[in-house]
Amino acid sequence: xxxxxxxxTDGSPVDDHTAAGSSLEKAMPHDSGIAVLTDDLMENPGFPxxxxxxxxxxxxxxxxxxxxxxxxxxxSIVGSIFAVAAYVAFPIVxxxxxxxxxxxxxxxxxxxxxxxxxxxxxxxxxxxxxxxxELVEERHGTRGTDATRAKAVEIFALGNKESGFTRRGLIRxxxxxxxxxxxxxxxxxxxxxxxxADPIPLLQHTVWKKGTRLxxxxxxxxxxxxDVTIGxxxxxxxxxxxxxxxxxxxxxxxxxxxxxxxxxDLHVTAGRETWxxxxxxAYSKICTHVGCPVALYxxxxxxxxxxxxxxxxxxxxxxxxxFGPANRPLPQLPITIDSEGYLVARxxxxxxxxxxxxxxxx
Length: 362
Known about the structure:
Layout: E1 2-3, E2 9-10, H1 16-27, H2 54-57, H3 59-89, H4 97-128, H5 146-163, H6 169-181, H7 184-193, H8 199-204, E3 214-216, E4 233-238, H9 247-254, E5 256-260, E6 280-284, E7 296-298, E8 303-305, E9 312-314, E10 320-323, E11 335-337, E12 343-345
Antiparallel strand pairs: 1-2, 3-4, 4-5, 5-6, 7-8, 8-9, 9-10, 11-12
Helix pairs in contact: 3-4, 3-6, 3-7
């Protein structure tokens, strides 16, 4: 029933939508943020007025900015040369922490100066000397037509002109010099990481020898065969390693992982029948990819995993590579037991340990 303004009702039906809309208008104020569609489009405001820089208005300031950029690039060259000179003039002396601090300080200052010089110079060049005119590039489909290629050449030529790379010879030459010399400190550092002597003899032999007991890392406690249960894994070092002066260097080559499997699970090649003891096997802990420690053992699959680059080795097949970038198995350490039941080495490794990127000569 509909009610008129005078309060009188009649029998005419009321439209539900009209009633609902009327109620909504009463309940919702007009400023409640209702979106309204309109045909009016916003006018493109365009670019703000261009404000020329001081270097655009004053040739003297332009020249001064060019000299400042050149100075920063030359400063980068000095920093790179200083880093190499400091690395050579103040070498690290083993056992002398003062030499370590001095070397790191001077080397860091030189490298920082070399990189900051290029970075600050490039930023200063872009802000003060390169063209800063704003423009809009319409998007369009790229096609390999002659016109497109000609336009690309035109754009590169325009970019070269706006940057001033060809015109500003001092900046160009100093930048090239800085870019050439900046990587030199890194080249010197990485080259110095390589052994000065032939690496093959260094990796061919470790401190393992016949009768050396296998001990826990790092305590040095000897390990009996009865201590090694099926599915267990031990991190092992040679007995007496902790007493050596160069124990860290020797440990980097001699570290071993010890595991026990069921003897019937081992696939032993001819000549290696005596290298394990009742299912107990020992393999080098140093990955044959780049020398990371292989320290993750999966009991169910008998796989060893190198966490650095995910190389996997199958212990049931003499640590053969089954996945990852390593391209040769982990070297096996032949073992047995002594008269007291302790695990001992039969000999040293029969091949070089560690990364396989060295040229191998046997």
